[in-house]
Amino acid sequence: MRHLIPTLLAAAAVAAAPAAIAREKLEPEARLAKLLEGRVAGEPQKCIPLSTSRSSQIIDKTAIVYKIGSTYWVNRPKGGAESLDDDDILVLKTSGSQLCSIDTLELRDRTSHMYSGFVSLGEFVPYRRAKAD
User: Fold this and answer.
1) Is the dihedral of CA 106, 74, 82, 25 positive or negative?
2) Which of 4, 11, 16, 21 has its CA 20 to 30 A from that of 54?
3) Is-contact 127 44, C-beta < 8 A?
4) Which of 131, 111, 125 is CA-nearest to residue 48?
5) What is the pLDDT of residues 38-71, one digit of tens each?
């Protein structure tokens, strides 16, 4: 019986872990705000260079964030934002070296690779670290 109690406690902790994680999941706007914490918005731009973009992150139904150097470029799509899902893959068909506000991105399911929507990009807003006083 003494060995059964620690086993039951461990099983309860494992079962409770998903519930704790689910409670910690932030709403999309809160996730974006947390990502941009300590940063200041700059002047919106129509295009960003693809060659220096290190990564992109989808914020569900809200925005796509590109990282170039230490700057985060936030794009809130003009159309199709409701299709954004952080588990999707972004597919861009471009002939240029820039990603611009006139471009559209196709969304594909990460598992099945099936089409799941598209977005029409808006302007790119740079967020840089706030300078210390």
Assistant:
1) positive
2) 21
3) no
4) 125
5) 999 999 999 999 988 889 999 999 999 999 999 9
